[in-house]
Amino acid sequence: MSDPNKAAIAAEKEALNLKLPPVVHPPENIGVDTPAQSKLLNYRRSKEQQKKINQLVMDEARRNLDRTLGKRTPQVPEPDYPSTMTSEIKKKGFHYIFMKQCVESSPIVPIQQEWLDHMLMLIPKSLKEGKEREDLLESLINEVSSDFENSMKRYLVQSVLVKPPVKWLEDEGGPLPESPVVLDYSNPWHSSYVQARNQILSNLHIVHPTMKILLDLGYKTFADTVLLDLTGIRAKGPIDCELLKTDLSIQARKAEEKIMNTWYPKVINLFTKKEALEGIKPEKLDAFYNCVSTLMSNQVNAFYIYVK
What we know:
This protein has helices at about 5-15, 35-40, 45-70, 90-105, 115-120, 130-160, 190-205, 210-220, 230-235, 240-270, 285-300. The protein has about 300 residues and is an all-alpha fold. Among the domains are: about 90-160, no CATH class; about 200-300, no CATH class. The longest helix has about 30 residues, at about 240-270. It is elongated and about 175 Å long. This is Dynein heavy chain 12, axonemal-like.
């Protein structure tokens, strides 16, 4: 190969090995107003000059006002009363009155409408009919609302302020009511209550439901029963003791037969049912029947002699 060809090939290789600079792309925000550009475009020198002029005018006006106020005569303080006219007690009284007015001017929660409605429900309907009575009810409601508001103000004053010992101050209506004394439940009581309740139910047989049924039977049977009727005996006039004894014995025997034929079978029928001994333990049966016997004896002893 000739030398000219070698020189051309070498020149081409040298051209290929030549490094070109990187490609630079245009910015993306080209043609868009940036904050700096917007500030520059919106700038007006006339506005800046106007701000400076306004500031100078305000400063000058402030200096003139200070000069004018400095030339004024200072205000003379209000003369105080001599010590002989305003004593310490009087000052305390005036101070208390001022503080009381401040407390009373605070907002007060009005009476609830539900309370007023409940009070109106207690009034019979016949007393609420008519124009005059409606006006009277309205005046009563206003009076109750006013009394409630005054009571709340009085309570607020007495709970916030301490009244000084000044005689000429008006009475506030007596001391505040004391808090009600309630039972102390700070210690646990439920377990002891349940224990006492169970003990009462197991030992106090008079509270058993069967005893109530027995009492009802006695009331129904003995309500109109007369053991001895002396009206007929008095009508006979004087009578021998033996004859009186015989008549009374006959009446008592008849009353006994009536009781044994009416009341006693019902009692026997009551205690033959299983429900009568419900909740009674076997070891408590004797005590339970003793209670029944005592109750029946008291009912029989409650008989009275009808005397007319």
